[in-house]
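Title: Comparing notes on inverse folding

I've been comparing how different people in this forum approach sequence design from structure. To keep things fair, I'm posting one structure and asking everyone to reply with a full sequence. Here's the target:
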């Protein structure tokens, strides 16, 4: 059974650093491209970053220079390091797994999803 479990969300003030984590089980982690998505109230789910098992990655323009996705293949773990947080970053953040080599930011391309972690940034 495939499971993706996010943790590390919370309520923070603008400008601080926060890291969220996703632990994956039930699949051969190194064979999957991993991604972070987010969904704010009343908005569509949007891609934040994707990272493949060889370390290649892409990040959405809205977070470039502030957010960094990383992964530890030995620990089946995905991270999203978020710096200089803004109120507009407030959303539920989801991790997702898709086929190796994907590196897209389209939700429909990903097969497995976590339950989400709330991140709330106040000004």
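Reply #1:
Here's my take.
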């Amino acid at each position: 059974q495939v499971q993706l479990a996010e943790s590390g969300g919370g309520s923070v003030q603008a400008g601080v650093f926060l890291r969220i984590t996703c632990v994956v089980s039930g699949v051969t982690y190194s064979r999957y491209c991993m991604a972070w998505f987010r969904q704010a109230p009343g908005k569509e789910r949007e891609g934040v970053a994707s990272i493949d098992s060889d370390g290649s990655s892409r990040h959405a323009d809205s977070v470039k220079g502030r957010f960094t996705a990383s992964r530890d293949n030995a620990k089946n773990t995905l991270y999203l390091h978020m710096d200089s947080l803004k109120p507009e970053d407030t959303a539920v953040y989801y991790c997702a797994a898709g086929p190796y080599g994907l590196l897209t930011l389209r939700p429909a391309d990903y097969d497995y999803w976590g339950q989400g972690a709330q991140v709330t940034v106040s000004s």
